Amino acid sequence: MDHSIYQSGEYLENNPEWHAEDAPLKAQWVTSILKQHGVEPKSIVEIGCGVGELLRRVSTEFPAAKVDGYEISAQAYPVAKEREQGALAYHFGDYLELAENGKVERPDVAMAIDVFEHVEDYIGFLKRMRPLAEWKLFHIPLDLSVQAMLRGATLNTREKLGHLHYFEKKTALATLEDCGYEVVGWNYTHGSEQQPRTSFNKRIMKFPRRIMRMISPDLSVRVLGGSSLMVLTK
Q1: Single Gene Ontology BP term (predicted)?
Q2: Phi and psi at residue 89, in whole multiples of 5°?
Q3: Residue ranges with strand state E in 20-167
Q4: At a CB cut-off of 8 Å and minimum separation 6, what does 74 contact?
């Protein structure tokens, strides 16, 4: 995994809030899919927890669970550490290495929320992660759409967000299955149009996306984009 932009401060410079503003919505999506499938974890780990706000909010939905976040960025980790409370703890280090060396306990749920699209060897990352928990939860940006390709928008996600790999629904699910995961359930998420602060282009696209989703959610996402995929696996 190429840690350079996360350890150098470049990622923080491009994303000064480290996406903490997205945490309330993402926490709702995480909680919803787990409860939808009857998962009541006693332990949760987030790999690549950033500044820890998402995990803090998830922990309030599962107050009986032991919750741990792991982060490799020296800039994000101290901010996350300030959010510790009760059974919620944050750790500086590579969770996969720690787990493979027997230095951490196996959790019920391991989450990688908007993570593996940043990882150079994402196939290797997914294969290493698979045996480390009973349930695995992923949030995957769907950067590939007709309008994104026409606008050349994938370059922006590479330069600003650090995405190295780009997915649409079928390739995202096929990637997980090829790595040995059993897909239990998935949901589209539409965070770009639900945030109170959003760009002019996203505000313009909000209504055509909603109208097309009423006709065909899959077609809307493939053509107009603006969505991600929350996937629960075993």
Answers
A1: methylation
A2: -135, 150
A3: 43-47, 66-71, 88-92, 109-113, 135-141
A4: 7, 92
Q: Which has the closest alpha carbon to 19: 156, 160, 120, 122?
A: 160
| pLDDT tens for each residue of 73-114 | 998 999 999 999 999 999 999 999 999 999 999 999 999 999
Q: Rounded CA gap, 187 and 152, in Å? A: 26
Question: Distance of CA 197 to CAs 21, 30, 48, 145, 190, Å?
Answer: 9, 22, 24, 23, 14
What three-state secondary structure class fits 138?
A: strand
Give the pair of three-digit tokens for residue 181. 């995961």
Contact present, 147 and 196 (Cβ < 8 Å): no
Half-sphere exposure of 103 (CA within 13 A, CB side): 10
What is the rounded CA–CA span in Å between residue 184 and residue 170? 15
* CA–CA distance, 183 with 136 (Å, rounded to integer): 9
Interior angle at CA 199, CA 197 and CA 201, nearest 5: 145
Determine the longest span between alpha carbons in the chain, in angstroms.
50
pLDDT of residue 4: 61
